[in-house]
Amino acid sequence: MTSAQVSMKDLVLVAGATGGVGQLVVGKLLEKGFKVRILTRDAAKATKMFNHRVEIALGDIRKAATLPAAMPDVTAIICCTGTTAFPSARWEFDPTLNLIEWGIAFVDPKYSETKAKNNPAKVDAQGVSNLVAAAPDNLKRFVFVSSCGILRKDQLPWSILNSFGVLDAKQKGEESIISSGLPYTIIRPGRLIDGPYTSYDLNTLLRAKTGGKYGVVVGTGDTLQGDSSRIDIAAACVESLFHPSASGQVFELVNQGTRPPVIPWEQLFSQLEKT
User: Fold this and answer.
1) Is residue 102 in some structural domain?
2) Which CATH number is 18's domain given?
3) Which among 23, 137, 182, 239 is most buried, taking Cβ atoms within 10 Å?
4) What are the beta bridge partners of residue 36?
């Protein structure tokens, strides 16, 4: 699949911008001089976090009608949205039900499928599908942060991770992107490490450095396993915009081996074309 060249004059829409990876994506885009618009449900939080350096579009990927207003002039989308893999307060359960005991969730999966407002099915499957449907026809790239293990859901530890359908939902999100005809890059991280876990200071984000000593390894076919630095995942999202070799690719990214002084993104993406 080919895509038009993305340039730093383009306007990039970031969904999930206030999350751990999303914050870093915004910071890296701004460092490179991109114009950035973020899709958010909380304008006050986003304004405080990014200090008026981004455009803010109020919207919710779970609500398709809120998305078209965020799309004018957008030429690339980076989607870093997500929720917890297991039932939590972030799923916005009915507060009258006692679903959490001693920090462990005891939930009927059928209940979580139908009643939760913010579970993986609503965010990673339907929400991503809504975002794809709203994307401009001339979009140059749709970048999606997915997950390792999608093709290994019957194997440990992925079968446990998928207990409440997070990998099923991520896979549906991937399928909606691939079948859309839009130029795409889908990145499947392993277990996410490195901050920020929460941050309200853009200057802190722009100075964020990984404490890891490991290099970046990419692969296809959902075969890799290991930890993935949020900082490196965010960098891959942004760097992939510049490289046609990353278009039409679905790949895992983990941190392994010796870390070079500079991550060779062009080499890594070109390697994918040969697999």
Assistant:
1) no
2) 3.40.50.720
3) 23
4) 12
Question: What is the pLDDT at residue 162?
Answer: 94
Gap between the Cα atoms of 38 and 11, Å rounded: 10
Q: Distance between CA 43 and CA 46 in Å, rounded? A: 5
pLDDT tens profile 131-140: 999 999 999 9
End-to-end CA distance of the chain: 15
Count of domains observed in the chain: 1
Q: Alpha-carbon distance 174 to 229, whole Å? A: 21
3-state secondary structure of 69: helix
Determine, yes or no, domain membership for 92: no
Whole-model pTM over 0.85: yes
| Residue-wise pLDDT tens digits, 30-58 | 999 999 999 999 999 999 999 889 999 99
At 73, which amino acid appears?
A: D
